[in-house]
Design goal:
Chain lengths: 286, 809
């Protein structure tokens, strides 16, 4: 196995171009598990940890540009206001040690349907920046996940950043695990209210072969919600919203939980996230 | 090294003795990451071993072709069952487990071939090239069917197994143990008459509760996976450095498989990263030795976590049916229990687990009429054997759940019904054995009930702090749906081995003077598995011999057996052996002092003691300092050394029809009160408090005792809420720590521990084994608390979120 350690994005892209089967590695929290357990033996590893640009974040034309290699710990510490749903999701990732290593780029690259950051990226309409020697392109998170562990990222591309829109309303993230820390999502849910566009965003994790949105639920709530006054939706609206979120899920029965439970939990989380959001919305909290 | 001179007051006792909390000798190394665990061993030129395991739970082996594997560069050996030099089967009690599978594989993950290569990766690559031709058979997955259905396919052909008539084996039954007392004792063997008695008792009872329960397969989840290093020796034998629980029982099984004499197989304990029962059975021991002898080179094995799930036995999953009847004032009239434990493919400790699950199957209650049936069966599921609590855990979940149900039926407080039926010293368990040691059960229950409660949620400084809520920082609730519940549990556990087993322990103790200072060496074969025996051995030597400097020799087979580090027995047994060996050393020191005319006439040995490095008379004061009495060892001074065995009182097998007999050595008890917050909409649980009252007879080391009770309680918490090796069609669905969840510190609540010291007159220092009892009672206490919060029946441990929200699994 070849081990490549580029120190600039350009070198990294050259490496990926030369080794389309090469696996990029950053924190190693996913990739190393697969290597250690002999699940795969890629011909090359492209170590991106020396590429400074990937570990930077900052404002970018009204959005936040988050380098793909920024650790979850830094997201928790720095993005609580700038990207609340993502920061909440980052806080639920594994353990402090893993949060020090793991990155959003890795989460996107692995594209596990249970990955913690996907629902937040979907709900907030984040954009994934992909780069290759051919140039850079931007793909909305909502178009990024194609099928089970398949994404829009091409074999010669690297995930270089995500672009996070400035929040214009409350954002939530909640995740079910059968222990109180260090757990892979049984299912997870993210909600974002966009005050300016009067739009609702959702994201569901571990609920289908890919991270998904509950589009019908989004449209329903955008229609029903009192964007002007932020009054509490009726019990019937809340319940309907929960049901629509659950019905967007196509979960499976597996060792982490049953499909029926996942749907049930999604509806409960959706109702709760909505009620928290409404309260915050009224307070004017972003 | 800085030398310190300490002037010891003649009247002072030796510090760091029994009852104090000296630091563990291995503690700092473990905390700083410098301790060498068995997986850290390394030798020049060593080879790496790897095991090829069966991908099928049940299949006939039609052929094994190793040709391609041998061609891999760097491979030094590929061995199959044909290469086993001696006995092809081994086992703790039944010799039924193949060293390497032949004819058939009986569980997924059974070792079929082993490889030694110059690199672990090479070994794995070679393994992939071994071709095994299997004819896949239907798995035998249902333990109830295996126990009851005469048409169930057999896991083992009858003629293949050693015969153990005392266990009533038949078909896939490994052991069947009935127990009958009171009115049931006259009806044994007749289902019809038994039913007659049952119907009469039912009619007489004011309340009858009948329920089926299940306990899932729990993993010991030790952190240090199976590993060891076998080094071929010049005498044709082998030296094995291994993490195990009982060096001599390993030796007893390894030597015949290798075709060697016992003395040619020498074992030394390597650093053990936890055990909890999972290291009672062999894993890589024979494989490493075979490869080392075959290649003439040291061979190291280290399992990874997934292989570890296949490489050791688990706690038996149990299917249970219980019926209890009580009078209107809450007194038990009768109880009937049936427990089926799934032994998996090989016997391991299953017969002994059945002995515990039956004899203690109805718990610590006065029951005039008892009917108990316990079965251990073969299936093609992963083999199950010893785990902390050993058969008593499963039954305790059922009988404690029953007591709660009965209390609810009769409108009694859960503590009240337990107190009304509580055993005490002089009570008889259902085997007829009298509890001839203190058992202050009623007092313990009341003390536990009266412990201060944790603050109500509303009293917290921030009731919406997510870290205090079910789901934690995953943010699933800000208080919505959260309901508090309280539950109690009590369990009775046998301590030391039972049923006629003489699990003696041996200790060698040497006293000599080195550099002007008396030094004591304690040498045993006992396995330090993290429990702290290594500290306790030193404390006992200090207390008995009045010498501060105690050296603990590495545990190996150069000294007699110490028995297993299980059954909560090592403080009792190896502690007892160290104590008696110290007594022999002390007696010799006294007679030496006498022979030198240092003991005034008229002073008996009973008047003498060793303290502060001196021979001291209670009446005449200090007589002589040990350095002066013994002289410097290197200059021909006296070396006083004794090796002594310690045996507990004999026990007996249960009779096969009525299950009567004094089968147990000692009994231990813990009482738990659990307080939980449950998110009743999402089925998530936060244990708020898990408080315990335990009688340990005598506290040997307060800090380590607290660690044992906290650890046992937490392991029980895991079984209550999350820990289950999920087995479907005989295949493990979650062989990883990603999906086999054990409690983290955020799942583990503060624990108040109230320790009683009511000495057991039969035991050294009056002590009682302390490691297991908390593992029994914490599980039912937590589940009871979740029932209290939710009103759900919750008959399966662990409780799943589905069970709480009412979704069928």
């Amino acid at each position: 196995m070849e081990f490549l350690s580029p120190s600039t994005v350009e070198e990294a892209l050259e490496a990926k171009h030369a080794h389309p089967d090469g696996v990029p590695i950053m924190g190693g929290t996913d990739v190393m598990v697969e290597l250690n357990f002999d699940k795969r033996r890629p011909p090359a590893l492209i170590d991106l940890s020396r590429v400074a640009e990937l570990s930077e974040w900052g404002p970018d034309d009204g959005r936040i540009r988050l380098g793909a290699g920024v650790s979850y710990t830094r997201i928790v510490e720095g993005l609580g206001a700038g990207a609340p749903a993502l920061a909440k999701a980052a806080r639920t990732v594994a353990s402090p040690q893993i949060r020090n290593r793991g990155t959003v780029g890795g989460n996107l690259g692995g594209a596990s349907p249970a990955g913690d950051t996907h629902p937040a990226l979907l709900a907030t309409d984040a954009v994934v920046e992909l780069a290759s020697v051919r140039g850079r392109r931007k793909v909305p998170a909502r178009e990024f996940y194609l099928s089970l562990r398949e994404t829009a990222c091409r074999s010669d591309e690297l995930i270089t950043a995500v672009l996070l829109p400035e929040p214009t309303g409350p954002q939530q993230f909640a995740k079910i695990g059968t222990r109180n820390a260090m757990v892979i999502a049984v299912t997870s849910f993210s909600l974002a209210l966009d005050r300016e566009r009067r739009a609702v965003g959702t994201g569901l994790g571990a609920a289908a072969p890919t991270p998904v949105r509950a589009e019908t639920a989004e449209e329903f709530l955008a229609e029903e919600f009192d964007w002007e006054g932020g009054s509490s939706p009726s019990e019937a609206v809340v319940r309907r919203f929960g049901d629509l979120v659950a019905s967007a899920a196509r979960p499976i029965d597996d060792q982490r939980g049953s499909a029926a439970y996942r749907k049930h939990a999604l509806s409960v989380m959706a109702r709760r996230a909505l009620s928290w959001s409404v309260t915050e919305y009224r307070k004017g909290a972003a | 090294m800085a030398a310190t001179t300490r002037v010891t007051d003649l009247s002072s006792t030796t510090r760091d003795g029994v009852g104090t909390s000296p630091r563990r000798p291995d503690g700092t190394l473990k905390v700083t990451g410098e301790f060498a665990y068995s997986s850290d061993m390394w030798m020049e030129d060593m080879l790496w071993g790897a095991s090829l395991r069966s991908p099928h739970p049940h299949a006939r082996i039609l052929g094994i072709d190793i040709t391609e594997a041998l061609k891999v560069a760097g491979v030094q050996a590929v061995l199959t069952h044909e290469d086993v030099p001696g006995e092809k089967r081994y086992g703790l009690e039944y010799q039924d487990q193949p060293v390497l599978a032949f004819d058939k594989v009986r569980y997924k993950g059974e070792p079929v071939a082993v490889v030694a290569a110059d690199h672990p990766e090479t070994a794995r690559r070679a393994m992939e090239r071994i071709r095994v031709d299997y004819e896949v058979l239907e798995p035998v997955s249902d333990s109830r069917q295996a126990a009851m259905d005469p048409d169930c396919p057999l896991v083992h052909e009858p003629h293949e197994l050693p015969h153990h008539p005392e266990y009533n084996p038949r078909g896939n039954r490994l052991r069947y143990q009935p127990i009958r007392t009171g009115e049931f004792s006259g009806t044994a063997g007749s289902a019809e008459r038994e039913n007659g008695v049952l119907e009469r008792l039912r009619a007489e009872a004011a309340a009858v509760v009948t329920t089926e329960y299940e306990v899932g397969m729990q993993d010991q989840a030790f952190l240090g996976p199976e590993s060891g290093l076998a080094v071929p020796a010049e005498d044709g034998g082998v030296d094995l450095y291994v993490a195990t629980q009982w060096l001599h029982v390993d030796q007893r099984q390894i030597a015949p498989a290798l075709g060697l004499d016992q003395e040619q197989v020498r074992l030394t304990l390597a650093g053990v990263g936890g055990a909890f029962g999972a290291r009672e059975d062999l894993s890589m021991q024979i494989h490493a030795c075979m490869l080392a002898l075959h290649t003439g080179k040291p061979v190291k094995f280290v399992y990874n976590r997934e292989e570890s799930f296949y490489g050791h036995v688990h706690r038996h999953p149990a299917k249970m049916r219980y019926e209890h009847g009580a009078t209107a004032d809450g007194r038990l009239l009768y109880a009937a229990g049936e427990v089926i434990v799934d032994g998996g493919a090989y016997a391991s400790a299953t017969p002994a687990v059945v002995g515990v699950a039956s004899s203690l199957g109805l718990g610590p209650y006065e029951i005039p009429n008892a009917l108990m049936d316990a079965y251990g069966v073969y299936t093609t599921n992963p083999p199950c054997g010893a785990m902390r609590g050993f058969g008593a855990v499963q039954a305790c979940f059922a009988y404690e759940s029953q007591m709660d149900k009965l209390a609810a039926e009769l409108g009694l407080h859960p503590v009240e019904i337990r107190v009304r039926n509580a055993m005490s010293q002089g009570s008889k368990v259902i085997t007829g054995q009298e509890i001839d040691m203190p058992l202050p059960m009623a007092e313990m229950l009341e003390r536990c009930r009266d412990l201060p409660m944790p603050p109500e949620r509303a009293q917290l400084s921030d009731p919406s702090d997510q870290r205090t809520l079910p789901g934690g920082v995953a943010g699933t609730t800000r208080g919505e749906g959260v309901v508090r519940g309280v539950g109690y549990g009590v369990g009775l556990k046998n301590l030391c081995f039972s049923e006629g087993f003489d699990d003696y322990s041996t200790a060698r103790v040497r006293m000599e003077v080195v550099g002007g200072e008396p030094v004591v060496l304690v040498h045993t074969a006992a396995a330090e598995v993290g429990q702290g025996l290594v500290t306790v051995k030193g404390q006992i030597a200090r207390t008995e011999l009045g010498v501060e400097k105690v050296v603990i020799a590495p545990s190996d087979t150069q000294v007699g057996s110490a028995g297993s580090s299980s059954a909560s027995r090592q403080s009792y047994m190896t502690g007892g052996a160290v104590k008696v060996a110290c007594a022999s050393v002390r007696d010799e020191v006294f007679s030496l002092a006498r022979s030198k005319g240092l003991v005034p006439d008229g002073i008996e040995d009973t008047d003498l003691s060793l303290s502060g490095g001196k021979v001291v008379s209670a009446t005449a004061g200090a007589l002589v300092a040990l350095p002066d009495l013994l002289g410097e060892a290197a200059e021909g001074g006296a070396v006083v050394e004794h090796t002594r065995e310690f045996h507990h009182r004999p026990t007996e097998m249960l009779d096969p029809e009525l299950g009567q007999g004094d089968s147990h050595t000692q009994f231990g008890m813990c009482v738990h009160r659990a307080v939980v917050d449950v998110d009743v909409d999402l089925g998530l649980v936060k244990v708020v408090a898990l408080d315990a009252v335990q009688d340990v007879g005598k506290v040997m080391h307060p800090q380590q005792l607290a660690g044992q009770i906290q650890g046992g309680s937490t392991q029980g918490l895991g079984l209550a809420l999350m820990e289950e090796v999920q087995v479907e069609a005989s295949e493990i669905r979650n062989p990883s720590f990603t999906d086999y969840l054990i409690p983290t510190i955020l799942d583990t609540p503060p624990m108040r521990i109230d320790v009683l010291e009511r000495p057991d007159p039969h035991a050294p220092y009056g002590l009682r084994g302390a490691g297991e009892p908390p593992t029994l009672s914490s599980t039912p206490a937590i589940v009871a608390a979740v029932r209290d919060a939710t009103g759900r029946p919750l008959t399966h441990a662990p409780v799943r979120p589905e069970d709480i929200v009412g979704i069928e699994v």
